Amino acid sequence: MTSQYEKYQQLDQNTPNTTSTWNMYGAGVENIGKDNQPELFNVPEPAENQLLVRVDAVGLCFSDVKLINQGSSHPKLYNRDLRKEPTRLGHEATLTVVKVGEKLEGDFKVGERYAMQPDIYQNGKSTAYGYTVPGGLTQYHLVGPEVLETDTGSCLLKVSDELGFAEAALLEPWGCVWASYTQRRRLEPKQGGVMWITGQADDQVTYGFSKGLEAPATVILSNVPDSFRSLVESKAKNVLIRNDINADNLEQAAAEFTDGVGFDDIVVLAPQSADELTRIATHVARRGTMNMVGKKPVDGLVNADVGRLHYDYVAFIGNNGVDVADSYGEQRNRCDLRKDGFAVFVGAGGPMGQMHVQRAIELKDGPRQVIVTDINDQRLAEIEARFASLTESNNCELVTYNPINNPVTLPEFVENHSKGKLADDVVVCVPNADIMAESATFMKDDGMLVLFAGVPNGTLAPVDFSSVYLSNAQYTGTSGLTIEDQTVVMDNTVAGNIAPAICVAAIGGMNVAKDGIEAMIDAKYPGKILIFPQLENLPLLGLDELTEQLPSVAEALGKGNTWNIAAEKALFEAYL
Length: 576
Prior knowledge:
- There is one protein chain.
- By secondary structure, this protein is α/β, with parallel strands linked by helices.
- 27% of the residues lie in helices and 23% in strands.
- Strand 6 and strand 7 (125-126) form a beta hairpin.
- Helix 5 packs across helix 16.
- It is globular.
- It starts with a helix and ends with a helix.
């Protein structure tokens, strides 16, 4: 006998004439929907270059709060009048093709399932799904060139039939997490770029530059040793000697040589002053590198722009030898968690933070000890319960910490639990510069600081740059994802390496999507809220409420009351 879930997957139902939709008409939760209800619109017919898709599941994401608060002034809406041209939340969506326009019949088929890659760019302009392009908080909608013809091609990822709807929808947030450990920094001198190399006038060290010096179109030298000047002049394409350039007048030099966008690559020989490094770092271009080569620490902490680390992928690299080229390359600059290491996840009680923790626990050759911090005891208790079976099966120790009313500071807590060795990796999930700066203090000299939460460009935090070139410390950050990141997550899910839906803490149907948004804002549930648009009358329920409300679904949950495909099938049997 065919189950309701199988019938649903096979589209063994007629497409309705209307679609229930939560449009957004302005800033504030009160402007989502009409009269606190979803609206009904006619299900449209696709044009020849469009698909009609059914929305199967949508994850609610806290990043939408900025859009809710700002409305038309949000950067991705470009001041459009939402009263006349509303948008729709829901960028974590999975879709099934219902109808295919004539021109797309060779590429898409009815019944195929896709996950949306919402980080869309067209002609270099961000037109993200769930922002510029209305998102998935509807039952049916059209997909056309705005998604299928982007700067990187189609932004639909075909989903394996082995994935449940929840798992497919969560490929997007999981892809963002995975991207945090994928090299986004440029780690070689830029081809055709502008490189500035600055040194100390009294430096007598004989430096080398064994590879990469032929890449820049222009190399500008300021106060470097004569032997190094001769070396650069023999290898580089176009060399300018400008001993008048220093940290004090670098802004004028950047305007002269780079039209103010910053140098693609900066090399600092024998750095001495933290203040100078602070000022120099502000003139590194987006995706640029600042390479420090020296044997002595600078005289203090550098005020690093932690916003640019996250959004602009600036690479701070270095080495303590004499060959400038030794700083570059993947081998010296790791971006993933250290094997058998000690990892700390700061402010990781929310859904995305939990994904970071889960990935670390399940990661092959990942850390053996994990500390998770949050200011909410309920969230920490939920993490301990939810991940108990994972930590046991992966031989990983998990410890939680709440700084509220705790006599032991977090740096002291890390030092105690690491037996004085400190952390190999620190992942910061809180958009707070002070917390970012503190987090750098309890990492090893050769550790890695990952800034997952973004703060505005121009936000400064004091960090130790000496450890970058003396001990190979890493400061990294990422924003957004690619369809390749989602693919990696899907492949790992199919292979059984990760279980993306473990982060689900509550479920609901279309009619309670707005309630779900409010619950997300209020942090009512210790994990992800998932909306199933086709289950219109499903109430908003935490997984801990299922035993009483939906016992058949509760019985299908995994260890630690975790969401899985079995629970999803039971839910559709009960509510479809």
